[in-house]
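User: Before I run my own analysis I want an independent prediction to cross-check against. Here's the chain; please return only the structure tokens and, at the end, one sentence I can use as a sanity check.
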Amino acid sequence: MRYWLFKSEPSTWGWDQQVAKGDVGEEWDGVRNYQARNFMREMAVGDRGFFYHSQKERAVVGIVEVCAEAHPDSTTDDDRWECVDIKAIAPVKTPVTLDMIKTDPRLTDMVLVKNSRLSVQPVTEDEWQIILEMSGSQS
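Assistant: Structure tokens:
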């Protein structure tokens, strides 16, 4: 299993909307960055991810699971763009803010710290465990 982080503006698509989709999940569509798209191409069903609210909140708020591998993004006719489907697994007990992540010396190499603009990004197994620990959650 691999780990990921999915960023969304809560005013556009928030955790509550993701939860409302249930086990069917939802396309992680609209991504128009080649690096983020390539990360989605690497994902497998069952991979886990953090759901991250960007903008004002800037925090990990939930855990999601990839429920469909990369396929054409339904929001465009341009075949360069693909997406995965994700479903909500559980909220984290305590949101983990970007400031908390940046001040933890164990997370200095995390992609979120180095490239906070990337909307889909990998998370190492160690980073996954550290953030779970910080949130008081289990995977």
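Sanity check: The longest helix spans residues 125-135.
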